[in-house]
Amino acid sequence: MRLVCISDTHSLHDQLPDLPAGDVLVHAGDCTGTGKLRRGFEFVEWFAAQPHEHKILIAGNHDFCFEDHPEWMQEHCENQGVIYLEDSSVVIDGVKFHGSPWTPVFRDMAFNAKPKLMQEKMKLVPDDTQVLITHGPPRRLFDYVPADDLHVGCLSIAARLPFLKQLRAHIFGHIHEGYGKQEKDGVISANVSTCTSRYEPTNPAVVIDLIDK
């Protein structure tokens, strides 16, 4: 199974080049810039029009439309054939995906969670998850912000990962400066932020091949 992964497109999706071919197109949140309902609808329609057989979307901290109008956005995703995950899972060709939009509190953004809530949301990740999609990174992995000289990833996400014994890939975004990919102990981790720190949508989509074990 080939995953094609993007994130943090911030309503600039029309500027992207053709995406690589693959089986599942994943967007790890912040599909909009302002979070307005119209922008959310526009993105979902663009996402649905991509040629990949399956499309999985989670929300991010800019995506107020999913937090404020969940019924409308979820219905639009369903009508367009887009799989929207919000603390929920889906199995595609035997591979279990779980998606969660929550990130630690930063300003007054969508899907912000204080530490207790963040821990509760991570407890909802099934133990048999094989592909985890979160909007934000775990602490100290593709989460460094040079301007502030800080690692800003989530401790609760980092604490949950060792218990996911079947995990094969963790896909996230949020921290534009952290774009990158690594494989360690059989798990591929990737910050797939499409926009740079200057909000230029120039980072290429990240391709992840899940090899049958």
UniProtKB/TrEMBL annotation:
Official protein name in the record: Metallophosphatase domain-containing protein
One Pfam family in the UniProt entry: Metallophos
- Matching InterPro entries, A to Z? Calcineurin-like_PHP, Metallo-depent_PP-like, UPF0046_metallophosphoest
What CDD domains does the record point to? MPP_239FB
The domain of life for this entry's organism is Bacteria
- Domain (Calcineurin-like phosphoesterase): residue spans on this chain: 1-177
